[in-house]
Amino acid sequence: MTSEVKARAHANVALVKYFGKRDVPLNLPAAPSVSMTLSPLNTETVLSFADGVDDQVLLADVPAEEKFSRRISKYLNIFRDLSGNHRGVRVTTSNNFPTAAGLASSASGFAALAAGAARLFDVNMDIAQLSAMARRGSGSAARSVCGGYVLWHRGEKNDGTDSFAESVAPPEHWDLRILVGVTTTGPKEIGSTVAMERTRTESPYYNAWIKSAHGAAKEAVDAILKKDFEKLGDITEHSALAMHAAMMAAAPPIVFLKGTTLDVFHLARSLRKEGTAAYFTCDAGPQPKLLCQAKDADIIARQLRAFPGIKDVIHCAPAEGVRVETNTTTYCEK
Ligand code: DP6
Hints:
This protein has helices spanning 66-83, 105-120, 127-137, 141-144, 192-202, 206-226, 229-248, 259-273, 294-305, and strands at residues 4-16, 21-23, 28-29, 33-49, 56-59, 62-63, 89-95, 149-152, 165-169, 176-182, 278-282, 288-293, 312-318, 323-326, 330-332. The protein is of the alpha+beta class and 334 residues long. The chain is globular and about 60 Å long.
């Protein structure tokens, strides 16, 4: 039996957003979404069996808070039930970027944990099953299992077996970049699940938002395959703004966007007017992100770095999928 497993997965940024569930416990999305898996943002997780039945969870080498540990243990129970092995697990996990600041650490975190736990518990899964399993930890984690440009299927089934992500193009297909503007590194004010549920039940725009996401996902995949940057950029901006509009219209409203976030949105528009193609996106946090082509990335990154309210810029490129190493084997999902 494998004694220690090391798994690494990258974060992802959605170009067509996931924001709404058709099933909360299984994290089944109400619509498909499309993302880019991103280097260098990653989570590294090392797993081994503990001596007893209790789990030990360390985050950046420090015992994790109880809420976080409980979430991990609950998730590991899925693997214990599947394998019939009820031993406790020692989990050491670290992110190379701020946790819970709208930079999707739950995506890379659960993708790494799913892949590592599948190997540790010796549960055989193909990539679609692994993605569906990661999804149960956090919806967007389904996409971080896969490399490059990724489509997460909504699926129709109640058990979620047809709601998994797959790579529609490998990282080397297209050298696009995402420049993440870091405005704050504090934890977010409201979690994704609560925000999505409130938007679903309390926003008059929810149904229109979900309806638009279906068409947007198809068009985004098409634009990726054809390398049509303007089209992909338009879809990306529209998806982010429609998602934020839907949640801002909920009662009480959910407002992740800060002044700096919106100013960077206008920066993208003025860059475009001057002939440099940059498109804006933003997730469940205040961090603005700019999508651009590799040839323009350094110029845009310089402007973003000098922008008032921006503390740092993380320059991201398409990354491979999840990687798992044991003492004897290495496996990497392209
Ligand atoms: C705004 O995957 O964090 O980043 O499934 O509740 O864990 P849960 O939500 P999560 O939501 C991500 C929402 C988003 C958009 C996206 O990444 O598609």
